[in-house]
Amino acid sequence: SPDQQPVNAPGLTCRLLCVLPSLLSSDCLTANIVKSHRETCQYRVEELQALRWKVFSREEVLAYQSKSVEEMWQRCAYRLTDSIQYVVEFAKRIDGFLELSQNDQIVLLKGGSLEVVLVRMCRSFNPDNGTVFFEGKYGGTEVFKSLGCNDLIASIFEFSQSLCALHLSEQEVALFTAVVLLNPERAWLQDKEKVARLHSHVDVAFKNTLQRSHRDTMLSKLSQKTLQLKSLCLLHIDRLRSFLELRPLLAHSLFPPLYHELFT
Ligand code: CLR
Which residue minimizes the CA distance to atom 9 of ligand 1? Predict the structure, then answer.
């Protein structure tokens, strides 16, 4: 229209540039990782939250508690293995992961898949009453009593509670789990440098997204979580060993082959 102000093209461009987030190459990687997470996270977070009212009844808890220690270990191993398979799929969809040698892919998954499951657990955890989504309903630590490793269960639940307190977004869970998985410090890596390069790309992508949402302080909190993850996984291996020591012939028949391969 005639009374429209003449447009100062260069000035306008400058103003637009100031308000548009600059596109970095790391944004591409962030998008890839968030998509990979979304496609492999087993349950959507809204779905899980909508199910929080479904809590095991007193009778159902007692039924779990009266199961044999073998049956309960077997059930838990199956659930864990199932979610580890989703983590394997997550890894495969991260740009660059399949370009690593097969040895290094296996080393990273062996060392990191349970850590990723334990981070993902915070999505399935209700911090208001300390319950986790297990076999269709929410239950507390008492559900797992017959496993005979209350200290491990208590530590896992505490970890989830503290991770929930950080209120991670789905994007943050996606990037944090990728950082955990691509750990260049795992023993037995053939090409540590290649893993370190991939890891630092994801790390930069993570730092950029945190900065944009003014959540930079999250980094130091999460590096503390990385240490806790490591000790939880060691505790899991230790409790599994004690369980199997008393039942040496059971190992092969009781556990899914992948669980066996990863942890025994
Ligand atoms: C983690 C997030 C996944 C779905 C999932 C599946 C199995 C769950 C796991 C979550 C959380 C931890 C869990 C596990 C089954 C058994 C295990 C509840 C929710 C408890 C802590 C018992 C561990 C026993 C070991 C000693 C074998 O998307």
Answer: 121
Does the C-beta of 143 come closer than 6 Å to ligand 1?
no
Report the nearest-CA residue for atom 21 of ligand 1.
Answer: 153
The amino acid at 91: A
Residues facing 125 on adjacent strands: 132
Token pair listed for 181: 């998985």
User: pLDDT truncated to tens, each residue of the chain (264 aa)?
Assistant: 445 554 455 555 656 655 655 566 788 999 999 999 999 999 999 999 999 999 999 999 999 999 999 999 999 999 999 999 999 999 999 999 999 999 999 999 999 999 999 999 999 999 999 999 999 999 999 999 999 999 999 999 999 999 999 999 999 999 999 999 999 999 999 999 999 999 999 999 999 999 999 998 998 899 999 999 999 999 999 999 898 888 877 777 888 888 988 888
Q: Give 14 Cα–ligand 1 centroid separation in angstroms.
A: 51
What is the predicted ipTM? 0.98
| Cα–Cα distance measured from residue 175 to residue 188, given in angstroms and rounded to the nearest whole number | 24
Q: Is 239's C-beta closer than 6 angstroms to any atom of ligand 1?
A: yes
- Residue 240 Cα: closest atom of ligand 1: 26
> Which amino acid does the sequence have at 168?
L
